[in-house]
Amino acid sequence: MTRFGVWLVGARGSVATTVITGAAAVRAGLAAPVGCVTELPEFRAAGLPTLDTMVVGGHDVSTIPLVKRAEQLVNAGVLPPRLLEHVRAELAAVDSEIRPGTEGLPDTGSQADIAAGLARDMVAFRTRHQLERVVVVNLASTEARATSQLSSDSLVDFEDRLADRAAAVPASVLYAYAAMLAGCSYANFTPSTAMELPALDELARSRALPYAGNDGKTGETLVKTALAPMFAHRALLVRSWSGTNILGGGDGATLAEPDVAASKLSSKARSLEHILGHVPEGETHIDHVPEMGEWKTAWNHISFEGFLGVRMTMQFTWQGCDSALAAPLVLDLARLLARAHEAGRRGAQAELGFFFKDPVGAADHRMVSQYETLREWAASLSLPT
Ligand SMILES: NC(=O)c1ccc[n+]([C@@H]2O[C@H](COP(=O)([O-])OP(=O)(O)OC[C@H]3O[C@@H](n4cnc5c(N)ncnc54)[C@H](O)[C@@H]3O)[C@@H](O)[C@H]2O)c1
């Protein structure tokens, strides 16, 4: 039986721990794959690899064992306690496949050396488990956005920069580059820079590797991109759209940093402008409230104008468990990218935009229309090229 690998960057985080525990539970028949889009009947013909054939490894800078992280998620109410007892051995096995990650800056050598070391870990994982192919998924803490200097680098300039000991390319970019060097497809589930550089796009296309991103669409933006087309299609004029998010967990703590929150907010901001054709008044805020634990509340207030200028409002409140919303999508992305790689797709896969707040290579943010695009693309994977 051929097997494929998933290499999680940030493998001991809340989302990654939920992915690993959830996949083990579904495989053992202890849980249904609720929330996995690729389990819908429309995706049956796409020839996607099954979760039974998936092997997981990854990088993390944290040394807290996965079993401990899973216990923390049980205490937080994210994972059911009975599941943990059944998947403890599997978590320990995945833990032994997690290698020390990097913050990006070298103690000795250059960033090129760091990237080469990360790529060696990925290749060794593929070889050790005799995997057909490996999908790297970035689930590490969100970074502040990189400087624009990098966006004008050709591949040669970029590699020169990495070899220069004074360079400071963000860690997400080093992992993405390492994935390309190792011949892996790649998904960026975070708003960090990662693959979003012309040099890395060039590398992906030249090595026939598909990639997708950025920033998983799991909560407030998911609702916004389902709702905003309603206003647009009914020719109602949205005058303001304001949002407040309160969240705890590791992600909440990271986003308490203003530079990092700016990265998330800019990724959230793009969808309304694209769907409505203008930028309504109002802002989105993210506040860290540790008491919320792994839960997030998003409250949105929308004011709009109807016939003869009549003013109306709508409000919604979303209360989500972020890791439970994100984990099945990570499994979807792993299966879809493994299949896309096998089918010879290369470069940015705009059709995977359905999964992201800030879809790479796609201008369409409308959730339902993104779903149709995804469905057609998945069906095309089973056609001869
Ligand atoms: N949960 C969601 O619904 C959702 C949606 C969209 C995006 N995201 C993004 O997914 C990411 C993970 O979210 P989470 O809730 O699991 O966060 P988390 O804080 O629980 O986990 C992040 C993990 O990344 C690790 N890490 C940090 N820097 C690293 C590095 N340089 N190399 C390797 N590992 C590193 C941390 O040690 C930690 O284990 C975040 O960037 C978040 O913004 C999550």
Describe the structure.
It is a single chain. By secondary structure, this protein is an alpha/beta fold. It is built from twelve helices and eleven strands. The chain has helices at 14-27, 66-75, 81-95, 111-128, 155-163, 171-181, 198-206, 220-233, 249-255, 258-276, 322-342, 367-380, and strands spanning 4-9, 54-60, 98-100, 133-138, 185-188, 210-213, 237-247, 284-288, 295-305, 311-321, 347-348. The mean pLDDT is 93. Residues 9-10, 12-15, 59-62, 101-103, 139-142, 171, 189-190, 215-216, 218, 249-251, 254, 322-323, 325-326 line the site of nicotinamide-adenine-dinucleotide.
Can you tag this structure with a few keywords?
385 residues; alpha/beta; 4-stranded mixed beta sheet; 42% helix; binds nicotinamide-adenine-dinucleotide
Topology, element by element:
Layout: E1 4-9, H1 14-27, E2 54-60, H2 66-75, H3 81-95, E3 98-100, H4 111-128, E4 133-138, H5 155-163, H6 171-181, E5 185-188, H7 198-206, E6 210-213, H8 220-233, E7 237-247, H9 249-255, H10 258-276, E8 284-288, E9 295-305, E10 311-321, H11 322-342, E11 347-348, H12 367-380
Parallel strand pairs: 1-2, 1-4, 2-3, 4-5, 5-6, 6-11, 7-8
Antiparallel strand pairs: 7-9, 9-10
Q: Structural class per helix/strand content? A: alpha/beta
Q: Oligomer, anyone? A: single chain
Q: Which residues sit in consecutive blocks of at least 5 with pLDDT less than 50? A: none
Main β-sheet: number of strands, strand sense, barrel status? 7 strands, parallel
Terminal CA distance? 24 Å
Cα radius of gyration in angstroms: 21 Å
Strand order of the largest sheet: 3-2-1-4-5-6-11
Give the percentage of residues in beta strands.
15-25%
Mean pLDDT rating: 93
Query: What's the SSE pattern?
Result: EHEHHEHEHHEHEHEHHEEEHEH
Q: Which kinds of small molecule does this entry bind, naming each only once?
A: nicotinamide-adenine-dinucleotide
Overall form? globular
Number of strands: 11
Number of helices: 12
Helix content: 40-55%
